[in-house]
């Protein structure tokens, strides 16, 4: 089947791209475009050519199904197709409606003219994949919008409406109404008025003192994004666009693009891009699985989590009924929600009208009876099983048949929670991350009796509230927190051996983590981890924890909320200040334990903590708790501050090499005497089979 639809309307050939869902420029589509352009040029009755897409997309760029494969470079490649448009003997008009991104925009830049709906979404988003435009985007785009505008647009990778480019040479005419009819009318004018076959390549980029401007830009991107090579390459290519002939500039761009394709950073970012799409696929739940209507939501608990969870639904236009046991707590929760919206309004990201509209969707109550008609009820109460039991037994009595009952638990057994009801098939875990109205990640915990339509419904809803949902099976801590426990545990063991909290945190942050483990503990509250450890000492006495974390908690050093934790904090300031008193406590602790400290390098710190994540994740995969390794990566990229340029813990392990990772784990087992460091069976099997996680 052809990937285009070719139609003659009067003396105009209309080529409609037809490669769902977003007209990705795969080999078949490129070949069809080339064949259609050749056909139109050979037809003496044709005087103009219009290229268009669907209402949804002109073209979303490269076809991700071919990403990095030989087909993505096979002739006619995108640059060859663009040359065909540019060298057409008959005027080519790109008619842009919907999405026009990456290679799609580069294709449009090869046309002689461009018409667009004012609302069409334009972007050159390659930077978000660790790449840069590779089919003329850095050379043609500045020639029509100017150097400064092009630099900002390409480096951001963000979408902009076509109307934002009014006044530039990018769009020749804005169409109101049907884009194809408007493009044909425009084509008639081109023919009648004998307008020239404009080639963007023939234009020049004018910018006074471009050397100074681009030198400043280069220094800035190297400072702001030192781990990412693509921004510097973009500046180099734009420098070529200003200073070199077009073909020479194209060579600079192409060489840089191919170099970036081979970097670990781009491989990792492309992995993350594909992994985010893969995590929505659940093997035993087809896309056409019926889902339950979720038009109203109830939330139990108006605290930090309950309020943040509520905001997700209010933002999506879904009415929320918020329940608390006392009016004072309810009023406080509502005030916090309003204050959060007011802060957003102060930043210019929300209007007063929109604020009031969202708040009008919020209803408050002190009675479970008000949940009788709600479609989805999420509990966000204290993390104690006895408290969850009380809540779910109450919900079971009042919720209507077919209502979904969800728990925001971060560690507890969803199967046990479901057993408190007479409808375990309707129970599911929805683990939001704090702050719930900001963090993208949603761990969707599938109980042993959770019905398929309930799971499908929550996955569908996650998109509506703009969350990245990852399915997890039931275990203590699910995917993210189960891994995190060992990450934090190993950080504690590093302190015993000779490291300090600032050294560990700085090493991890320099490596790319948003926050080191000890700063993270102070932010979350060290008493939370203490409570978990107390349970572990009873439930899992074989797991070894460094007891120094207990020592600081016994002294009330809970972190930012007490002004003192692993660091000191001044009132009203979250900046951590190293504490000599803690250093002395640590020295005393080591002496009491008979531990002789050793020198620990930053490299060892990183390996010790990241490989702990990898080993526990491998066990999670063995047990079927996570569906795929890339799901684990998405959990850490979207919920735990893992650097996207590393691709996630599993992708990073693949980049290092699983054999090397396993060797280090064995070394750590000798150093610590901790059986945790025995490489997981999955790692051993993958090494034996010459395979990788991702």
Give a quick set of tags describing it.
single chain; 694 residues; alpha/beta; 2-enoyl-CoA Hydratase, Chain A, domain 1; Rossmann fold; N-(1-d-carboxylethyl)-l-norvaline Dehydrogenase, domain 2; 3 domains; eight-stranded mixed sheet; six-stranded mixed sheet; 18 strands; 49% helix; globular
What is the compact description of this entry?
With 694 residues, the chain is α/β, with parallel strands linked by helices.
Describe this entry's structure for a reader.
49% of the residues lie in helices and 11% in strands. With 694 residues, it is α/β, with parallel strands linked by helices. It has three domains: 4-261, 2-enoyl-CoA Hydratase, Chain A, domain 1 (Alpha-Beta Complex), CATH 3.90.226.10; 297-472, NAD(P)-binding Rossmann-like Domain (Rossmann fold, 3-Layer(aba) Sandwich), CATH 3.40.50.720; 480-689, N-(1-d-carboxylethyl)-l-norvaline Dehydrogenase, domain 2, CATH 1.10.1040.50. The strands form three sheets. Strands 13-12-11-14-15-16-17-18 form an eight-stranded mixed sheet, sandwiched between helices. It has a six-stranded mixed sheet with strand order 1-2-3-5-7-10, sandwiched between helices. It has a four-stranded mixed sheet with strand order 4-6-8-9. The chain is globular and about 90 Å long. The mean pLDDT is 95.
Q: What is the strand and helix layout of this fold?
A:
Elements: E1 4-9, E2 12-17, H1 27-42, E3 48-52, E4 57-59, H2 70-73, H3 78-86, E5 92-96, E6 99-101, H4 103-109, E7 113-116, E8 121-123, H5 137-145, H6 147-156, E9 160-161, E10 173-174, H7 179-192, H8 210-224, H9 230-243, H10 246-261, H11 264-278, E11 297-300, H12 304-315, E12 320-323, H13 327-346, H14 352-360, E13 362-365, E14 376-379, H15 385-398, E15 404-407, H16 414-418, E16 427-432, E17 441-445, H17 452-464, E18 468-472, H18 480-497, H19 501-511, H20 517-524, H21 526-539, H22 548-554, H23 580-593, H24 602-622, H25 629-639, H26 649-656, H27 658-672, H28 681-689
């Amino acid at each position: 089947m052809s990937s285009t639809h070719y139609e003659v309307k009067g003396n105009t050939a209309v080529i409609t791209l037809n490669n769902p869902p977003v007209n990705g420029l795969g080999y078949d589509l490129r070949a069809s475009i080339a064949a259609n352009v050749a056909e139109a040029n050979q037809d003496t009755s044709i005087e103009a050519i219009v290229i268009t897409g669907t209402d949804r997309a002109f073209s979303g760029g490269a076809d991700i199904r071919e990403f990095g494969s030989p087909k993505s470079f096979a002739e006619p490649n995108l640059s060859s197709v663009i040359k065909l448009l540019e060298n057409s003997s008959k005027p080519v008009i790109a008619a842009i409606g919907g999405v026009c991104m990456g290679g799609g925009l580069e294709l449009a830049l090869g046309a002689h003219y461009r018409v667009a709906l004012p609302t069409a979404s334009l972007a050159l988003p390659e930077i978000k994949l660790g790449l840069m435009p590779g089919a003329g985007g850095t050379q043609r785009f500045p020639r029509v919008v100017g150097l400064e505008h092009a630099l900002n647009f390409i480096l951001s990778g963000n979408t902009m409406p076509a109307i934002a480019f009014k006044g530039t040479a990018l769009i020749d005419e804005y169409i109101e109404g049907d884009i194809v009819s408007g493009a044909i009318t425009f084509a008639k004018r081109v023919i009648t008025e004998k307008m020239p076959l404009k080639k963007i390549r023939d234009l020049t980029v004018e910018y006074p003192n471009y050397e100074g401007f681009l030198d400043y830009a280069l220094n800035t991107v190297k400072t702001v994004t030192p781990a990412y090579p693509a921004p510097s390459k973009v500046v180099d290519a734009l420098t070529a666009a200003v200073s070199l002939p077009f073909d020479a500039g194209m060579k600079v761009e192409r060489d840089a693009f191919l170099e970036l394709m081979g970097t670990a950073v781009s491989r990792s970012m492309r992995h993350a891009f594909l992994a985010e799409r893969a995590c929505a696929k659940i093997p035993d739940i087809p896309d056409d699985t019926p889902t339950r209507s979720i038009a109203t939501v109830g939330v139990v608990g108006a605290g930090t989590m309950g309020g943040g969870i509520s905001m997700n639904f209010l933002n999506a236009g879904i009415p929320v009924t918020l329940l608390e046991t006392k009016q004072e707590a309810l009023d406080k929760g509502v005030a916090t929600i309003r204050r959060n919206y007011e802060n957003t309004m102060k930043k210019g990201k929300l209007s007063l009208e929109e604020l009031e509209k969202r708040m009008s969707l919020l209803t408050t109550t002190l009675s479970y009876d008000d949940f009788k008609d709600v479609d989805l009820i999420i509990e966000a109460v204290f993390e104690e099983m006895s408290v969850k039991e009380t809540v779910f037994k109450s919900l079971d009595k009042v919720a209507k048949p077919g209502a979904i009952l969800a728990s925001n638990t971060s560690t507890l057994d969803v199967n046990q929670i479901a057993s408190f009801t007479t409808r375990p098939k309707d129970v599911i875990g929805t683990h939001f991350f704090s702050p719930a109205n900001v963090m993208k990640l949603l761990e969707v915990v599938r109980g042993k009796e959770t019905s398929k339509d309930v799971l499908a419904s929550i996955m569908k809803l996650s998109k509506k509230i703009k969350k990245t949902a990852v399915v997890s099976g039931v275990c203590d801590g699910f995917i993210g927190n189960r891994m995190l426990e060992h990450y934090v545990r190993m950080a504690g063991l590093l302190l015993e051996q000779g490291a300090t909290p600032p050294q560990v945190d700085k090493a991890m942050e320099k490596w790319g983590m948003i926050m080191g483990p000890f700063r993270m503990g102070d932010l979350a509250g060290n008493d939370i981890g203490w409570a978990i450890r107390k349970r572990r000492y009873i439930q899992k006495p074989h797991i070894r924890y460094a007891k120094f974390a207990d020592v600081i908690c016994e002294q009330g050093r809970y972190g930012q909320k007490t002004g003192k934790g692993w660091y000191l904090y001044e009132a009203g300031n979250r900046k951590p200040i190293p504490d000599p008193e803690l250093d002395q406590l640590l020295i005393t602790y080591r002496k009491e334990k008979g531990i002789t400290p050793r020198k620990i390098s930053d490299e060892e710190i990183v390996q010790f903590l990241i490989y702990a994540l990898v080993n526990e994740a491998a066990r999670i995969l063995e047990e079927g708790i996570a569906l795929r390794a890339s799901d684990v990566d998405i959990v850490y990229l979207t919920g735990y501050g893992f650097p996207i340029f590393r691709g996630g813990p599993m992708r990073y392990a693949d980049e290092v090499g699983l054999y090397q990772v396993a060797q280090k784990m064995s070394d750590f087992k000798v150093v610590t005497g901790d059986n945790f460091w025995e490489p997981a069976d999955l790692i051993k099997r993958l090494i034996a089979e010459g395979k990788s996680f991702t």
